[in-house]
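Morning run. Coffee first, then this:
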Amino acid sequence: MRTPITSFFLFLSAIAFSQPSGYYNNATGTGETLKTQLYNIISTGHDPLSYDGLWTAFQTTDDKVNGKVWDMYSDVPGGTPPYEFTFGSDQCGSYSTEGDCYNREHSWPSSWFSDAAPMYTDLFQLVPTDGYVNNRRSNYIYGEVGSATWTSLNGSKLGNCITTGFSGTVFEPIDEYKGDFARNYFYMVTRYENKVVAWSSNATVSDILDGTTHPAFETWFLNMLADWHTSDPVSQKEIDRNNAAYTLQGNRNPFIDHPEYVTSIWNVGASASLTVNPTSLSGFTYALGNGPSASQTFTISGTSLTPASGTITITGTLNFEVSANNTTFGNTATVNYSSSNLANTTIYVRLKSGLALGSYSNNLIACSGGGAATASVTCNGTVTVQVLPEPSNYPSSFSAHNIHLTWTDATGTILPDGYLVRSSPVSYAAISDPVDGTFYPDGLSDKNVAFGVQNVWFNNLSAGTVYYFKLFSYTGAGAARVYKTDGVIPQLMQATTP
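And here it is:
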């Protein structure tokens, strides 16, 4: 049944509560070997019910939350069904239209095995359904309909098969229950591995059985069941039904407990896969000494994962760290999945603190687990120089005494780290503005003065010469130095004595 995935922990507790410890310990092989191992496991302890006993059994295997009958031929998952049945009082009986009563549907028609026991009352293929819809289904095989000749109120339909390999009439349940019926059929050819060859002599069932113990199904039908099994993963409804049936008849449907067995036995179905979105993240940045960066996110999802329940590990890099909750970051993060699927899950990434100045490109965040190929997210980031704003003001009282220059430090919200005093014996215009990010070493025409010193000497100047001076404030150091060059730049001229 296609429904939202129940939490991983609830899934585990439900299985652990009813599944005996070591129930599948002997299921160690693959292919036909695994199928036979499962046959031995689920045949042991199988205590068939009576046909009349099914009415009572359905009250625990197929009851909705509201206590009504869970009929897959009339239910509307996520919506309001056109009608619902009450256990006991709505048992068939006669019927003339949908909604009259419910009866016992052999999803694997009993005529295919000549009404023989124990198949006739096996709960894993018997379900309560609308009597009228059951009658319309008759003993037609399940399939995918092209042109419907009849459609039930919930969308189940009868018509010609559009799947390559068969063109006869088929009955198609709604998408939300296709996986349920597919797993019932995988159960039947496994539980009755010793009988399935004889069943293929039936004219109808021979369209889906190939006359062998394994693979048992015709290729077209096997591929369709595998697609249904993958598209409609195990639901909580099936888990609960499996547990209830085990209590009543003493065995389990292994393809509900372990959906991955389908691929292991028949080598069909979608391969395990992990998907990330987006596949690259960029723009991580912080100024040197101010890390880590702000976090960014991607989502990860998975399908057909093996085993059915497990953990996906997200691994960071030397420069990027990850988190599943945007609170606790580290080199790895983990997320749990169940029913072989992982719904879209958000992962957080950030550039680590304490990194050196520079670019950090093509770092791959790896997502692995579940039997799938590793999915990666490429991350790019940069640690930059801390660039401060330019000073607010220029120094005041700029004067020269025998080419000894003095001033009063600049004030304002952003104080300079120092000053560059530039000189020229030609004119003020001959003094060029300093360029941000450039350091001008001390010499005849340039002097660097720390903030707070407030004076500088220009020595070894030519005698009897008029010199022109400009005073520039700056913040930062080295490549990060920023000069104030706008507005009115303090300037003066002073002559040396002859």
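Residues 3-17 have pLDDT under 50 and may be disordered. Good start to the day.
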